[in-house]
Amino acid sequence: MEWFLANSGMVLGLAGQHLVLAIVPMVLGLLISIPLAQLARRNSTLRSVVATATSLLYTIPSLALFIILPTILGTRILDPLNVVVALTIYAVALLVRAAMDAFDSVDDDLRNAAVAMGFKPMARFFQVDLPLSLPVMFAGLRVVSVSNISLVSVAALLGVGNLGFLFTDGLQRTFITEVVVGILAILVLALLMDAVLVVLERLLTPWTRAAGGKSSGADATTLITEPKSGPGLPHAGLRTDPGAPG
Amino acid sequence: MNIFAETIAWLADPKHWTGTGGIPTRLLEHLQYSGLVLLIAAVIAVPVGLFIGHTGRGRVVAVAVAGALRALPTLGLLVLFALLAGSGLMPPVWALVILTVPPLLAGTYAGISSVDANVVDAARAVGMTELQILFRVELPNGLQVMFGGIRTAVLQVIATVSVVAYLPLGGLGRYLFDGLVLQDFPRMLGGSLLIAGLAIVVDLILAAVQRMVLSPGLTLDSRGSHKAAEDLTAAAPAGAAVQGGTP
User: Fold this and answer.
1) pTM of this prediction?
2) A119 CA: distance to closest CA in chain B (Å)
3) Which residue numbers delimit the ABC transmembrane type-1 domain (chain B) (predicted)?
4) A14-49 pLDDT, tens digit each
5) Where are the domains positioned within chain B?
6) Would you say the ipTM is above 0.90?
7) How far apart are CA B121 and CA B125, in angstroms?
């Protein structure tokens, strides 16, 4: 505790770097995944290609990817860009699946109703499909958020600055306090990000509460696949939860 | 481009395929560590998962514990165990076991509880004991979903064992860290390719085993179970990432 207070400036600085390295890939991943998922949903060949490619990408260990990428991108090994690209790849792999499930979760009757009311395809997508897919999308985002925050620390092994530095430094100095502070800081960061996503989801989907039914947040907290979960919970594939939110 | 040629040269060099620091030795070490971690984790996770899946009891606790474990950073836990328990093989193995239990537990539980309740009731109605139901009905029927969790866990362990070399132990991760210290990029890249290759090959083998072990009745089954299996194979890698376990 004393060590943390004495070094809080450094820890906060590292936490800031850590957060940037975790959030940027998540946002990039989302921006890439939504159009990709939309395309894949219309084309069954593309859909199976995407499904295979995403599971294949995930088999590549991140430490290996952090090292392979510089030679492909022409960056230096210490460049944080490698971490951003690697985590974006993982985020896309996860979010494309989540986005497809999310768009599938939108009731076709609602889509048809929107078309009947005269929505143009673009307007319908942004005003009907996208908002209604948010609950499932957020479940995917929360998974990516925790996984990114955890994976970023691995990049410290190569010397990229983030909270993982507390682990490598702590090991070299055989200083347990520093390692414990690092673990706690990462846990706090993961919980904070999860809480932010939960709040964001609530703000963006006010109707899920108005309906009085199950809130989507409750679905998202189910850690384990519930293949028998009722109708309207199509994201059984997201067998993942960041942990108890808040 | 040059670095690729150098990497291939590094991989092809017969010197790197013999001796204590050779690729076969490192590969074997990697597989030994992974096997040990998986064995211990399975001994803990599978019975608990079977129990929770069959009875439905303790679900909430298991979900909460597994969720909390998932947020733990792999590297931090490895370093902490190494500092607390000293050097040697077992501290990192225990750290990895803690990270491997959640996906195995989740997979086992999900597999057992994915079995149609009507099928279980029918088994009970024809007079099967609870143990018979578990091992003759729920286990074979839930195997497809269970394999999703198993593959997640295996991939995650193979990936995470690379980090163990940092502590420092053996395994294919040695090439990454030695290469980093020596600024020997062909060695690092070669090591990375070996780890990625190992992960892909092991996953393919598991996919083949899955096809062999599964009851043929399941593959003829309704669309529903296909969907569930698809979801899980896709979720498998997702789980790995959640662990923070794919270093």
Assistant:
1) 0.75
2) 32
3) 27-206
4) 888 889 999 999 999 999 999 999 888 888 888 888
5) 3-215+225-245
6) no
7) 6
